[in-house]
Write a structure and sequence with these properties.
Low-confidence stretches: 1-25, 100-108, 110-114
Helix content: 55-70%
Distance between the termini: 59 Å
Mean pLDDT: 78
Radius of gyration: 18 Å
Strand content: 5-15%
Number of strands: 2
Order of helices and strands: EEHHHHHHHH
């Protein structure tokens, strides 16, 4: 076996994967390397939105790449939805094992009413997302932050389209209340 290191470029989260390859298997490895390079930032962002912590998001992304690599013959047809589904499943598995969620007690008051910068707004959004129940959070992230259709979210999470619509609606309403855009 030969060990090949696939590394995402600097400044994008430094996602790394170590791939064990047989010496003659170059084309699947090259395809996977291209997939990692092209999707690392998007998957890391999705993971961060699911867990709310950078370190845990990087670990989740790495675990997802490992699982996608092991299933590459199946996943190579449409790897990004497959990888997103793996991320969600890993998150659910972790939650089930630990049976605890680290919810934010309260979302802090807005730091600057008129001069919010992107970092402050993103932090507020992530903190607000962490107040949602896990399934609602996954649906809101996939549906509205990743801009997937109701059918795509339904297929990725294995729930009905009606569940996606209802959970997304309730989740957005809860986020509006938490973020102070609407009264309860």
């Amino acid at each position: 076996m030969v060990e090949v290191r696939v590394e995402q470029g600097a400044g994008s989260g430094d996602v790394e994967a170590y791939l064990p390859l047989a010496v003659g298997d170059r084309s699947p490895a090259v395809e996977f390397e291209v997939f990692v390079r092209d999707s690392a930032r998007a998957l890391a962002t999705t993971a961060y939105l699911l867990v709310g912590e950078r370190h845990r998001a990087e670990e989740l992304t790495q675990q997802a790449f490992e699982r996608v690599w092991r299933a590459w013959p199946r996943a190579r047809q449409d790897p990004l939805p497959y990888a997103r589904r793996v991320l969600v499943n890993l998150r659910v598995d972790h939650w089930r094992r630990r049976r605890r969620e680290h919810l934010v007690e309260a979302v802090p008051e807005r730091a600057h009413a008129a001069g919010d910068d992107a970092v402050v707004l993103r932090d507020e959004l992530v903190r607000a997302l962490m107040t949602l129940p896990p399934r609602q959070r996954r649906i809101v992230v996939l549906r509205h932050l990743l801009d997937l259709s109701v059918e795509q979210v339904s297929a990725e999470l294995g729930v009905t389209p009606g569940t996606v619509k209802a959970s997304a609606s309730r989740g957005l309403a809860a986020l509006r209340v938490v973020l102070g855009e609407e009264h309860p």
